[in-house]
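[Archive record]
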Amino acid sequence: MTETTSGPARGSRSKGSKANKGLRIERIHTTPGVHPYDEVVWERRDVVMTNWRDGSVNFEQRGVEFPDFWSVNAVNIVTSKYFRGAVGSPDREASLKQLIDRVVRTYRKAGEDNGYFASPADAEIFDHELTYALLHQVFSFNSPVWFNVGTKQPQQVSACFILSVDDSMESILDWYKEEGMIFKGGSGAGLNLSRIRSSKELLSSGGNASGPVSFMRGADASAGTIKSGGATRRAAKMVVLDVDHPDIEAFIETKVKEEEKIRALRDAGFDMDLGGDDITSVQYQNANNSVRVNDTFMKAVESGSQFGLRSRMTGESIEEVDAKALFRKMAEAAWACADPGIQYDDTINHWHTSPETGRITASNPCSEYMHLDNSSCNLASLNLMKFLQDDEAGNQRFDAERFAKVVELVITAMDISICFADFPTEKIGETTRAFRQLGIGYANLGALLMATGHAYDSDGGRALAGAITSLMTGTSYRRSAELAAVVGPYEGYARNADAHKRVMKQHSDANAAAKRMDDLDTPVWAAATEAWQDVLRLGEKSGFRNAQASVLAPTGTIGLMMDCDTTGVEPDLALVKFKKLVGGGSMQIVNNTVPKALKRLGYQQEQVEAIVAHIADHGNVIDAPGLKPEHYEVFDCAMGERSISPMGHVRMMAAAQPFLSGAISKTVNMPESATVEEIEEIYFEGWKLGLKALAIYRDNCKVGQPLSAKKKEEKEQAEPEVEKVVEYRPVRKRLPKGRPGITTSFTVGGAEGYMTANSYPDDGLGEVFLKMSKQGSTLAGMMDAFSIAVSVGLQYGVPLETYVSKFTNMRFEPAGMTDDPDVRMAQSIVDYIFRRLALDFLPFETRSALGIHSAEERQRHLETGSYEPAEDEVDVEGLAQSAPRHVDAPKSDVSQPRTASGAPREAHSSTELVEIQLGLNADAPLCFSCGTKMRRAGSCYLCEGCGSTSGCS
């Protein structure tokens, strides 16, 4: 696919490199003489992003330029996250062309300066192909590339970092500083604390050492203070401790004890929800914790024998513990609070390409990047759905040839980036330039499997996933060998050549041994086999340019940028999706992958339409007309009536792991009913199946997570009946965590503002938030105080009509015309607010007695002499307007979900839509930026509304 030609050496090259040659770049998608920008239709859009809970505008940029096929969500996220320059200034980027050009031109120049291309024509093809692939959402670089490349700030291209710490105070303080600088830049880091002597060992002065758990407190406080990139989300960090460290039990129990503290404080009335005012008082909440186990320990668990904990200073065993009991403690802790995860040390280092330089001791925060200490990895992910095609006969196929060509293009670009990249510390820069670790991966696997008629938890699904992963990594290392022939192997290759070639043989052998299943995966396996044969042949001759090539990352924000339905290696969240519309509004649609899957399974068009209609009504395929029960599993999702079993997730990870340089970012979700024994089984099977790392999450194990309505009902039903004492004072009725609401923008006499009114699910208005003027101003402060006073009164039982009667007709400036057709004139802002609330929440008779009518009612009075609707019209009184009004939405493929009172409930993300459809509460935090419910992306959480993540870039 790629040829090389001799040419003069230019720019810097790795030590020991051969005479420079240049790559011949092959066209994949582009046409000679035609720029990719000229082949698409461009349009201008306005991006206005608000927090739906309080109506505040988070971001606004109007007139941005994007292709017409880009979704609203992708446009919003790229504009708000990746465009550089101050908003409102002439220097602000306003077109996707500017963003792509800023990045691609930097890569092209660095490639030319460092001798990557055989000729200027090849450089131009590289430029055009990279532009096309980014423009058409075929792949994306990780977020730091979009943040930094081509700007005046440091050219950081990596999102993943591994640090190191030694047993000295100087090293520990360096750890705090280095970690803080990485967090400040919006990235995350991980490290292993096992070199620090335990609290059971002595210092040279004679006293007892503090131990790593003690020093974790300082690092946790630092991370919590700095946050990540100055945002309100937590920093992303991973802390690892070896299972033979004498303080391992204390490490395992750190978060369990803090969780108990959270429960006690919550019961005492403190706000311990995620983002609550008091949650910051607990420790160890800013890191993911993992125990690094070895084969010796796991075999001791298997046999039920003793295991030695070793001194950090002498290496001698200072304590014997029951391995099975220690393993049980790990599972109990994970059951209680999701930490610690587990990393399999011997498996990790068995696949290590550079063991002569040092062992792999840690990972990045999401556990997909695993390599040397003080190193980094830049990531890029391919959108797998872009390679699913129909052949001439109308049959589906995965375009393995085009996929391999795009992998070659992306790997070339990723390696070029190391030539100009900046790094947060000199040590990380030195290691990364010497070993050139890359992390190519993919997204949309779950969508691809469903579209091709494969169940996620099936032999066929795992075979296709394994084949694609093998082809991706094999092609990456083949290109790495070709790059080594052009610009030389990585500096550390000579010392590690035998080990690197051994690992390549291990990958090739795993590819050969993998089971072929059907017409879709078999051609991909064949292409992968050819790639691995080339890897062995070319690697023997030229070595390799990169010590690492592939990982499976969460693909959070960049997955949204590419309009992917699923992130990383994850299955689909649910069969019904939440979709934003151009011009505002949203609708719910059945996944586009469902009809493709049904067609692949042999269903006729009429049957497909009937099944899709059933899914639209019910949110699942159970009892769908004409759908065979044996096909139900194809439509199993991460949540819902038919959710994928925890072991199904583990088996999918095992299918991909032998074909990855690094590991997989994924959390295995388990139901709340899961037992400690089941977690033990998951952790043990992960070792048996050859995984490198694993983490579980049991639903509702975190105190700070929302409690489902079902759980609340069960709790209430379980409470015994007791005789109640009558209290002659008002009792406050607080709103539930999830509550229906509406945000209204208004203008009164030229003054603009926002009002958010939230109601009890079945019992009328419960709180009001008003926003006017700038935060910190006198008016804003008075509005906040007024809102709180009214809200508290409502929750203590003051009727809304009492407020309406007192505050309507109150006169003061600003007053005059409004932009509300129901309230054309207002004598003050307060007059308008309570007229609007009356229209939204009071029954017809009540507000009619107060002289408050809608525009429609006033028009009816002019025509008929009566404000009341005719008998054949909607019974407004019967609807009892106890829930907020809703603007008519565009017609949807899905019936509108409703609250317990029968009023429509509004969804703001796919996760919230699934909650409504299935009547459950997803175990996920709310986005701090826009208030929507986030969803899982690997080991972290992703906000579909604004692209924010809980720790991963």
User: Anything to note?
Assistant: The two ends are 33 Å apart (CA to CA). The first helix runs from residue 72 to 81.
